[in-house]
Amino acid sequence: MELVWRPLTTADIPEVAALYNAAEAVDDTGELLSEEDFAESFGKADLPGGSLAVLTGGRLAAYGLVALRDNPVDTHRVRLDGVVHPEFRREGIGLQLLPRLATLAHDLHVARHPDLPLAVCTMVESRAEGHVALVEKLGFGADRYFYELEVALGESLAQVPIPSGYEIVPFSAARDEEVRQVCNAAFAQHWGSVDRSPEEWAASFTDSKRFVPESSFLALFQGAVVGFVLARHYPVVEEMTGVRELWIGDVGTLEEHRGRGVATALLSWTLAQSRTQGYQRAGLSVDSANSTRALGVYERAGFEVARTWIDYGLPVAL
User: Fold this and answer.
1) Model pTM?
2) Residue limits of the N-acetyltransferase domain (predicted)?
C-alpha cells in the first residue's frame, strides 16, 4: 500500500470527522466528535508542525495530532492523538504514525521548551486490545489509569444540602479570571496538571462552543470562589445516541475548603439543575489515584464507572 504523508489542513475536517466516527463505531469508546468539534481542536493546534494526514488512493486512511501544553513544569508531557480508519488497520500504519508524531512533538518541544525533559503520551481505552498492544510494542508504558464515570439524571437523585457559610451560584463571565486562578490552585498538586494560561483557559472554556455556563456552578465563601463545577455539552452525542449528556470537565475545591462537603454539594446542585435543563445523563473523568479521594465524592453522587482509560507515556531523548 502506497502512503502519502502530509500535514492536516482545515479542509480535511469533514473527512477527519467521518474517519473518527467510523472508528468509534468499531471501537465503542463512547467518545463522539462532530466536524464542529474538530474545527475547534484544529484551531488550537499547530497544523503545519504538529499534525499528519495519511492518504492512500486519495482517501484519508489515518490522521494524527500533537497537543502541547502552554506552561509545562518539570517534564513537558505532549499528547499524541492518532486514529486509523478500520478499513486500513493491520497494515502497519499505526506503527508508523505514532513515531512520526513523536518526532513532530520533539521538534516543537525543542523550539518552545528546550530546557525541559520531554515525554510523549497517548490515551488508550482499556478494552482496545489492538491499540494497547500497539503502544506497548512501541515502548510506551502505562503511567496512569483514569475512570470515566456516568450517572443517569433520574428523579431518584438525592439533593445534598449546601454546607453552612457557603453559597452556590451560576458561573458568570465576570468571575472568569478568578475561576481560572482557583482552578489552577485546586489542581496544583494533581498528577500531570499544569497551570492553564489565560489563552488556554479561554480556548477550553470561555471561548469554547462546548462550554455551558448555565450548567456550570461556583461555590462561594465570604464572597470568594472556593470551588467549581465546569461543564460542557457535545450535541453530537445526542444526535448519534439520543441521549442528552452533560460532560463535567472540571470539579475542584481549594485545599483549605476540602473535607466540608463543598464538592459533594456542588455536584448535587449541578446534577439537579442539569436535569431541569433537559439533560438525561452526566459524565466525567477522574484519575484512579487522585490524592483528594475524588472518586468517593463522585460515587456518593451516584456516578458509576463506565470505562477505564490508560494514559501511556514514553520519555523522548533530546
Assistant:
1) 0.90
2) 3-158, 166-318
CATH of 4-139, one of 3.40.630.30, 2.60.40.420, 3.40.50.850, 1.10.150.240: 3.40.630.30
Q: Average pLDDT by consecutive 10-residue portion of the chain (318 residues)?
A: 96 98 94 95 95 97 94 90 97 97 98 95 95 97 96 85 96 96 88 82 88 97 97 94 96 94 94 96 92 82 94 95
Please state, in angstroms and rounded to a whole number, the distance separating the CA atoms of residues 177 and 173: 8
